[in-house]
Automatic annotation (TrEMBL):
UniProt protein name: Pyridoxamine 5'-phosphate oxidase family protein
Domain of life according to the entry: Bacteria
Ranges for domain Pyridoxamine 5'-phosphate oxidase N-terminal: 28-153
Pfam families per record: PNPOx_N (PF01243)
UniProt xrefs under InterPro entries: F420H2_bilvrd_red/Heme_oxyg, Pyridox_Oxase_N, Split_barrel_FMN-bd
Chain coiled-coil ranges: none
Sorted UniProt keywords: Oxidoreductase
PANTHER family, per the entry: HEME OXYGENASE HI_0854-RELATED, PYRIDOXAMINE 5'-PHOSPHATE OXIDASE-RELATED FMN-BINDING
SUPFAM superfamilies: FMN-binding split barrel
Organism field: Streptomyces stramineus
Length: 171
C-alpha cells in the first residue's frame, strides 16, 4: 500500500501558543518504534472492548494479529471500525498517537511472510511466525489472523511544553 499524504492541521484550541503541527513522517516514525498499542473494537451490543497488543507499521498501515476466537476478532467480524493508540503514561512529557480506521484482514501469503519477518525483527525470535493458510502460525500459540489498519484519521498529542494536538486526515 502506498503512503498517502494526509491533510495536517494543528488544533489551536488544545495547543500551546508556540506549538506547531507535527509532520506525518515524524508520527510514522513514532508509530513504527512503539512497542505496545491499545486496540479498541466494538462488541456486538455496542460496548467498547480495549486490549493491549503488539504490532508493526508497514506499507502505510499498522498491523496486528489475533486468534480467530479472541474477542477482538469476533468484534471485527461484525464491525471493522477500530482505534489504535500508543504513547506514554506521563502528562508532562511524551507524545501520544491515535489511529482510526478499518481493520482489514491480510491473507496474501507473500505479504504475510514480509510482515512475519517484520514482527520478528522488531520483537525478537519469541515472536517468530510461519505463514500457512493465510494466517500467522506459531507452534506454541497456534494460528493468528493478521489485520491492517490504514489511517483514515490520526491524532497526535504533544505533552509538556509545548502542548499540541495535531490532526491528520487522509484522502
Amino acid at each position: 500500500m502506498a503512503e498517502k499524504e494526509p491533510r495536517t492541521a494543528l488544533d489551536e484550541r488544545y495547543s500551546s501558543e508556540r506549538a506547531a503541527a507535527v509532520a506525518w513522517p515524524d508520527a510514522v516514525t513514532r508509530l513504527a518504534r512503539a512497542e505496545v498499542y491499545w486496540l479498541t473494537t466494538v462488541r456486538p451490543d455496542g460496548r467498547p472492548h480495549v486490549t493491549p497488543l503488539i504490532g508493526v507499521w508497514a506499507d502505510g498501515a499498522l498491523h496486528f494479529c489475533t486468534g480467530a476466537d479472541e474477542r477482538k476478532a469476533k468484534n471485527l467480524r461484525g464491525n471493522p471500525h477500530v482505534a489504535l493508540t500508543t504513547g506514554c503514561n506521563s502528562l508532562a512529557e511524551g507524545y501520544d498517537l491515535v489511529v482510526e480506521g478499518d481493520a482489514v484482514a491480510v491473507r496474501d501469503e507473500t505479504r504475510l511472510r514480509r510482515l512475519a519477518a517484520a514482527w520478528e525483527a522488531k520483537y525478537g525470535s519469541a515472536w517468530h511466525f510461519d505463514v500457512r493458510d493465510g494466517a500467522f502460525v506459531n507452534p506454541e500459540a497456534g494460528a493468528a489472523l493478521v489485520f491492517e489498519v490504514a489511517p483514515r484519521t490520526a491524532f497526535g498529542f504533544g505533552k509538556g511544553e509545548p502542548y499540541s494536538q495535531t490532526r491528520w486526515q487522509f484522502p
